Structure formats: C-alpha cells, structure tokens
Amino acid sequence: MSTAAAPKGLEGIVATNSSICWIDGDAGVLSYRGIDIHELAQHSTFEETAYLLWFGKLPNAAELADFSKKLSEARKLDPKIIDLLRSVPTAATPMQVLRTAVSLLSIYDADEADNSHDANVRKSYRLTAQIAMIVAIFDRIRKGKNIVEADPSLSHAANFLWMLNGEKPSETAVRTFDIALILHADHELNASTFAARVIAATLADIHSAITGAIGALKGPLHGGANEATMRLLYAIDKEGADPVEYVRQMFADKKKISGFGHRVYHTEDPRATHLRRMSEELSRTAGNMKWFEMSRKIEQFVKQEKKLNANVDFYSASTYTLLGIDIDLFTPIFAVSRIAGWAAHVIEQHDDNRLIRPRAEYVGPAYPTKYTPLENR
After folding, report:
1. In CA terms, which of 76, 148, 294, 352 is 20 to 30 Å from 5?
2. Which residues contact 88 (CB under 8 A, 6 or more apart)?
3. Which of 262, 274, 345, 350 is catalytic?
C-alpha cells in the first residue's frame, strides 16, 4: 500500500467515488448528477433538485408531487425540541442551537437505529423539513415572537420565509430564495460533506453524520464568509467610506477580504453568477441599490488588484440581507439547503460502505527513539 505524503489539506486528493456532484474548477462547472447548475437555477426548484440528488434522476410530475407531499408532512417537531429552543441561553448562536437540536432529533426519530436505504431516505425527508423549521422557530423565539405554524400549501422555500417572517413572501422573494437553496444544495467533498461521509462510514446513523457536518460548517473557514462580507458592507456604510478605498486600505493592512477566491474554482464560481443577478434584481425591486452597488465596486476592484473572483458567499450576503434575513442566520441557512446534499452523500456512503481510514505521513522523532527513565530526564 502506498504511503506517499498527501498535500497539506488533502488538496487535489480524490478520496472516494461518487455519482452525486461533479466540479470542473478550471472551466467553472458545477453539476448535480450531470446537470449543469445554470440549468437547475433557471428551470428547477429546491424540491426537484433534492429529488435529483437523492434518487439520481429528475422526477416526473407524480414523483415530484409525492416528494413535495412527503416533505410537507415531515414538517413536525417533537414538543421536546421546541422546549430546547425555548430553554437555551439568550446568548446562544443559531449555529450552536442547530447543531444541538439536530443531535436531539435522533432520540425522537423512530428510524434512528435503521441505516437501510429506505430508512435513510425517510430520515432525509424529516431532517430537510426539520432543519428549516429549527432555524426559523429559534429566530422567532429569541426575538420574543410567536411561532408560526408550517403551511402545507407552500413550497419549501416559501414555507421557510413564512415561518421566519410571519408573512407570506412575494413571488420574487420565494423564487430568489429557492434558487439560493438550489445553488447551495451540494458541492462535492467540501469539509462538512466529507465529515458527514467519514462519520457515516463508521455505520453511525444519519443524525450523527449531519450533526458532524453542521459542526464542520460552524468553522469560519467553511461557513461564515457571507456573514463577514455583510459585516464589511455595514462597516463601510457606517463610516460613509468609499468602498474601493476602504478595501484598498484593508489590503495595505494585510487584512483578508471574505467572499473572494475558492479552493476549487480557478475562474468564476458559477453560483456567484446567479447570486450577483439576484442581488441586483432584489435591490431594484426594493428600491435600495446601496448594497449591490457597493458590492459591485468591491468585486471589480478585487478582481483588478488581486485577480480574485467573487465566490458563492460574496453576493449571497446582500441577497439574504435584502430578503430580511439576519446576519447570524446566513450560515444556518446554508445548512437549510446543504442538508439535501449531505443526505445524498450519507445515503450513497451507507449503500456501498467501507470504513474511511486514511494514513498520515509521520514527521515526528526518528524511530526507534529510546525511552528515557524518569530519573534521567
């Protein structure tokens, strides 16, 4: 067996075979089950995309209707989960609460100990519905607002906005959020998905795998870049500064600008293409071009100065803000979407499992290093 050293961070290493997602970083291609993300963003819905990820094909009309019905029926939380959301400290962050609540969900899931394909699919419906509910309900609880009951007549995107804001969202808002969910639904072996597959490979249950994925997403090097982007825009606006000069000074001070560059893409992140357009459209609809125009100036400057392209996080910041979503919900909303991909990967891992057990390149003291007795140290 080869023990050749892998590059730091496993960059460029192929760790598994998968039929779920394909990326060409040089050409700027992202596809789910072979279908280009641009086609899905233009024509599909989150429900249809989740079906594609889980079942490997686009659904026909009857299959899509059944999928949507099952997802709607899964929008239920045990009262003990609601009790948890009410009892956490007020200083708790939405990501902390989501991570803990998803772990607790397993205790109340009748399929918890069943890792069969069908059981994993059933749990995927529930997790997809419940994660969205947890994010929306906790936000209302922490703001002292009444919980909004799920509306079975609404799509997944519309229902989330309804439960979050307590008012029926506009068609523009629903379509924008639906596309955002499609764009974030999967991204091959990113940190959280790889964590989920490693956990699933031990034959741990899907709730354990998704809890681990959320833990990985909580780290600022994976989730949180769009939060940092929006905080930057707020800081520039508060100071009344010129966006380009503000960012120029950040570069001079050796500070990082979030939302640019990508480990995989060497050209424009294809998801950023749609989020830029959606940010502009929402801005025009709202009659508030400030965040988009500021973002556009920064994007053009960074591209010119550093040859870095905006990634998925850069324009998702202004898009979510224009939808009335708080900054600390940006990363949990990533999970609201990515659960579709996480679930697909756990299902795939359990269907053809082998324990994931890589090797490490040893760089410690040379062998054999002799043991030194305590009295001689």
Report:
1. 352
2. 96, 97, 100
3. 262
